[in-house]
Protein 1
Amino acid sequence: MAYHAGSGPSPGDVSRVGDAAARDLTGRLERLPLTRYQKRLFVIIATAWLFDSMDLAALTFVLAPISSEFALTAWQAGMLASGSFVGMAVGASTAGALADRFGRRPVFTTSMLCWGLASFIAAFSWDFTSLLICRFFIGFGMGAEFPVAQSLLAEFVPSKVRGRYLGYLEGFWPLGFITCGAVSLVLVPTLGWRSLYVLLGVLSLYALYLRRSIPESVRWYVVKGRHGDASRTLDEIEEKVATAYGQPLPPVEDVPASAEASGRAPVMELLGRSYRVRTVMIWTLWFCVLLGYYGITTWQAKLLADGGMTVAKSIGFVLGTALCGIPGFLIASWLLERIGRRPTIVGFVLLSAIAAYAYGQMGTTVGLVIVGCFMQFCFFGMWSALYAYTPEIFATRFRATGCGTASTFGRIGAVVGPLIMPTVLAAWGNGAAFAVAAVFMAIGAVTVAVLGPETRNKKLEEVSA
């Protein structure tokens, strides 16, 4: 069809108008100062992260009494741990694609229903099979949350503080681990392991209540071409930010236009020429890190119990060393903005590998305490850097899918780790198991050092341009 003067805008004109609208909307979002409004949204997302962590960490603290009650073999105990990660792999890959297609908010606000209901049912499980099924659906619900929460936070926090707040978000994960350990220390010896799952089910209802106030991502609206919805949502956000700020908002920033959603499947875009290297890099990192991490931490409390500690003492030991990790995620969050994402990730993953290897060689309680504390410090920093970096390297139109597939590869590693460790432990002992974990972590660090782009102080649209 030919276009003539007076017949209406040409396709080029329409495209330029759309690009201008997109730049204006994302520029308005980027210029917003950080106020108590964004911090409140952060706390809501982070609270969900905390509850997820508690639910996943629960098995670390109750695997010994569950194994005793159901007379589990080492292989069955490993299956319980791996069952959650299989569910997380399926949930992450599914939810990421759904969030890119239908929006962040609906997936995020409903994901906890799955793991909450499964937690309630797990409290009344009657044998190994019923508990394994519950662990799968707990993992599915949590896996569905990860890519969406990462994408939401990355898309509404200004670039100048994005890395720090994404790092803080992941800090709530180890805080959930610590909280679960503290609660387990009180509940499990007195009320039994089932009481912990009842509590986790109740917390899922509270998370559902909190999520009512989370808005849809303005950036997602923009790449979908829904500029009207984006503008209305942004008007509401600007009003709340301006009220909290107490003075005129800064000028609109100049931001590159985001490419609108194409007809290609998000997975195909991940493997396209522009993103193939980034995708392989982040998939490798997640697989290697999670294989090493969950391969040793899932068994940590049980190994201590098998070594002669009571259940309560083994839980207390793991909890005590985990407390030493809190400075780790705080320092990593600061370094992400200070020296950059790539050196922070590489540094903390390599330190985690060294600490894991050293921990496996310790033969005294004093050595386990000292190296265990250092190992948790490194682990916490590693997780903060990893979760901050992942959503930044993908374009908005397939960011949740990118995060979801990365998490999926990680969960595959998390399935493999707890399954291979009993074989390594039986054949070569604790030292070899921790050495295997260290080698995989080191591979992940080298991959980022060689292939990873730097994203510090860059707007999301600049990173994906």
Protein 2
Amino acid sequence: MSLSLEKIERLAPDQASLSAAKKLLKPAGWPTLEEDGAGLIWGECQGSGATPYRIAVTEADAGYKCTCPSRKFPCKHSLALMWMRADGNVAFNRGTPPQWVNDWLGRRRGPAVGKPQVDSAAETARPSIAALATEEAQEANDPAALARAEAQRARNREKREELVAAGIGAMDQWIADQLERGLGGFDQRAAQDCATLAKRLVDAKAGGLANRIAMLPAQLFGLDEQHRPLAAARALSAAYLIGQAYTRQDSLPDLLRSDVRQMMGWSVTREALLDDPAALKMAGVWRVLAARDEVQPDRLRRIETWLERVGDDPVHAVLIDYIPVGGGASGNMYMPGELLDAELAFYPSPVPLRAQIAAHRGTRPADEHWQCVNRPLPSAIAAWRRALSDKPWLGDYPLAASDVAVRSAGEALYAVSSDITLPIAAASAEAAWPLCEAGELALFGLWDGSALTPLLAQTRLGEWVAP
């Protein structure tokens, strides 16, 4: 075995990376740990995101690859995988390298020739595993420092609440000004006006609401001109409703209060969610239906992975990851058609959709195509209406229906059943046009109350996946 603790110390970019890697040495956080028996190891590590990071290491030359967006090389996940291997206290299952490992092996360069010389000062200051125990003991023996840190966090929360309240007041006045000027020409001034308000909301620590406002101009220009005033009215009404709900949060039911705080930009950490005894958890086999990837105005990539629990009573969930643009090679970990054997923990909401993987027991390709039977479109819309009544700022809602046909009328497309017709989003029309020739089909997509964005269809001609 070529890996050793001394080599890991030499590879670590700094002491903080070693400290972070040590926290990842628990096998419970690694749903996959495998080797090929010839010096190649790989694993999946459940990090702070919704989907696990994938790591591969070649033992001979300590080559590594991780899908996390860290700018440290090697990252803490790669160091932790090497550390567990070097320690020899964790079993690695024998297996065949999956496709993502083979893809990396095919692209990677060979081992570096030679190593740069390290001077004696750098050698003395290099990261040390032995020093970690001393650091941990010092932190544990300073309760006064822990108390000061907690008091500072409380002051920060109080200050942020004040800033958010001021930001909501500024937004209310801005919306009133827009209504006074009229929404007929709002689309023409939206780019500048929305950018100004979004910046004000960012300064007010209301990042979630800021993103909602900043994305509005692009959403409007994706619509036909005659539909923009109504879409603007709906978007501004939802933003106003979120603001008013936040100011009255103490009178809201617990789940709705938690939801509106998340809409405003308050985050719930993965650790807090998994430790919450009241959090809704569901175990089972989950099918990956679709993946979406978009860049937000705050320069974060928002990656959505939509899941459906396999069984007679399907349940939908979405895993959401945020990755800095240009933050390194990273992306969606799961592909449509894969099956996850996992327990999901849902973020508190009256309409629970967003989730984290609480326990992951493995991933495998599905043996058969997605099945959607006896789910009429009117029933799906009825479920959306119930969800909207529970969460008035609902946004995109998963809709799965059988016995649907896609029909065209001019350049517009519609999802049609015997009892209801839904317009298909104009941005999806070109990609979905072949479905007009497919006859009756099963359809999965996202419905926002105005248009349906199709993401997956099962037809008599085969499976269609949105590009």
Protein 3
Amino acid sequence: MKIKTKIALRYSIVTAILMTVFAAIIYFVSAHDRETEFYDDLYKEGVSKANLYFEAKASPEIMHSIYKNNIEYIDEVEIAIYDTKFNLMYHDAKDIDIVKETPELINYIIQSKKNINFYLKQHQVVGFIFHHNNSQYVITAVAYDGYGYAKLHRLTINLIILTFICIILSFALGYFLARRALKPVSEISDRMKDITANNLHLRLLNYNEHDEFGELATSFNKALDIIESSFESQKMFVSNVSHELRTPLAALIGEIDYALLKERTIQDYIKTLQNSKYDASRLIKLVNGLLDLAKASYEESRISMTEIRIDEVVLDARKDVLKADPQYKIDIQLAPLTEDDTALIIEGNEYLLKTAFSNLMENNCKFSENNTSTVKISSEQNAICISFSDTGIGILPEDMENIFKPFYRGKNKEFITGNGIGLALVDKVIKIHKGQIGINSAIGVVTTFYIRFHTRDHHVISE
């Protein structure tokens, strides 16, 4: 069921409840007024006939004649007159006698000293004391309010019809108003259907940003911005990966084709295998870099975090780098000392941090003529600072803002081979650990990467 239909139905239900309550109140108030008014009419009719009997000295025959003539056209009131000793003085229809007065009833009316009203089935009865010539008489008047009940019945029918008409009108009005109010939603839905992977540049425009639908359109546009950016990043990523994979694969196939072209000497085959191994190593390194970049791109909730010591992770990274390239020189400097071991402990993922530190050490060594990296670890209040320095060619100012983008290689890329994954991976890992990373570079002199992690409070002891 659509929202506008639900709104119309709920609007109709509310209207039905209100109309039912309103109709019930009108009915019960009207029924009470009919009853009260008819009791008053019975009293007045009883007083009139009593006056006609006592004051006008009308004979019983005349009064019976009036009663019989009227009863043919309307529900005439039946009057009975008794004295206080239960002697019947006059009765409009003694043969019918609807009330069937008893001494107990007469005595109850006398003792009540006020009008009494009650029902006999559908007939209403009023009993009261009438005073004449210092004497008391008991008058009873009874009748069926046919006219009043007929009016009440017509009122009931009219209220039911009016209630149903109001419900139908409220549903139609509610549907119209809901459709009109939700029209922007339909427009947004139609426009969203037009947006596909091939035209993610389209946006929802011309909406008032200060109402709910404008806020919804703004949220959709922000989501589309993120999706478009993700698609562009994905296209660029696939394009770059394809390019990076194609180069070593093409070189590897070329070496194999060269070896198969004709018979070679053992030395030629050895050289071909060495070149093939080099290309395969480049492929493995690229694939490992892509896997590490993918791991660093996981949601933080999916990355396992434990307490680790930064200095131990740095030492492990140094060990891995030297194992892969023994000619590298990595100098680790730890200062100042702390009064307890907790100063160098953070919550982190050991594998990712070791991978990031290894990349920075390798970059230092690759871009330094003496293949050297200097790593300094220091602790401050609530923070751990690590710097990775080289004495290499440096980074140009125009490359600084793009240096952490995946597959980006600066103008110094001719100096050494690479694929542009390492620093992008480092940036993601540091951000996952809520750290900050910065660069300070002087062309031809030194390049230093600064990393800062927040940690628990500790006291620093100077050497």
